[in-house]
Amino acid sequence: MSIQQRIKQRRFRNSTEESFVSILFAGTRIVQRIEDACEAHGITHTQYNVLRILRGVHPEGHPRCEIAERLIGRAPDVTRLLDRLEQGKLIARNWSKENRRLSIATITAKGLELLRKMDPVIEALEKDTTGRLTAAEQTALVRICDRMVGAEK
Hints:
The chain has 7 helices and 3 strands. It has helices at 3-7, 15-39, 45-56, 64-70, 78-87, 109-130, 135-149; strands at 62-63, 91-95, 103-107.
């Protein structure tokens, strides 16, 4: 089914508008599916993203500013986001030995266990979304996405 049929639009002004709306439509659908998967495990997509970032550097951690920089989407209050994860015992924060003013967040065993439970769900979502594409199409998609956001300032 084409984007025109999906959103019941007769025509687009041009291919630029059609491609832009197509990206918005696909992105919104994907984000909703990942939000639903995260909600089923008691966290938000942004919290999942933080846990994923911290798992990538486990057993070390990252300061708040580094986490904020690595997030896929912007989060207005990373401190409160980390507070909620800490309250749920999914992360721990300790002071840096090099700079006592800097706290470092690390993922806990409980956080790692949650991600292990979520991994098959997220992998299935990834396969259902981009697994329909050939390897060459996936590579091309990554390049196209990089070009589109390369213009960001």
